[in-house]
Amino acid sequence: MASRVLILACLAMCCSLIFASDPSSLQDFCVADSNSSVLVNGLVCKDPKLVEPNDFFFSGLHLPGNTSNSVGSRVTPVNVAQIPGLNSLGISIARVDYAPWGINPPHTHPRATEILTVLEGKLEVGFVTSNPENRLISKLLQKGDVFVFPKGLVHYQKNVDNWNAVAIATLSSQNPGVITIANSVFGSKPKISADILTKAFQVDKNVIYNVQSKF
Fold first, then answer.
1. Helix, strand, or coil here: 114?
2. Cα separation of 85 and 33, whole Å?
């Protein structure tokens, strides 16, 4: 009997904590204050009396990104760093430009799910499920198609045509973060030991040195 009472008491406590949490924002907005030195999980709110229209505004997504780089793509982000008014709203957007046969290399967003919409061109897209299955789920997208990349999973896009391609990505975080796999593994500072990477990738150590030299 005593054990049942204890279980019920624990359940009641848990329910109280759940209902006591904030289900949503408690104010209209929380424009990021870039001048504040206070460290919080997110950004400190600007005084609402000092908020102005430009805090909710960004101009430039109509401009093509420069894809003259080694991977042939360019991401133009619009997150809380560009629009302070996105602070606490849990959403952001980006434009992605692809040169012919360019790629947005395998990467993850540790804090966001992504919805990609193709505006121009054809893209091969895909993501890989977590261990141990590591299943590749991929599809060829045309203009107007939409594809979802679940939060935290490695994903990529590739332009599969001789013409430029453009896509818009919306993400479920004001600051989704990006971890490009190759940059993280081979371009870390300081470098990950070649011994570790040799065993991880099952290749000769000189191969690792060669790849690291490119980052």
1. strand
2. 10
CA separation for the pair 27, 178 (Å, rounded) = 29
Q: What would the pLDDT profile of 171-180 be if each residue is shown by its tens digit?
A: 999 999 999 9
- pLDDT tens track for 23-48: 567 789 999 998 888 877 878 999 99
Contact at 8 Å (CB) between 198 and 208? Answer: yes
- Show the CA angle centred on residue 139, arms to residues 138 and 144, nearest 5°: 140
How far apart are alpha carbons 169 and 97 in whole angstroms?
11
pLDDT tens digits, 83-138 = 999 999 999 999 999 999 999 999 999 999 999 999 999 999 999 999 999 999 99
Residue closest to 100 by CA, chosen among 182, 168, 147, 166: 166
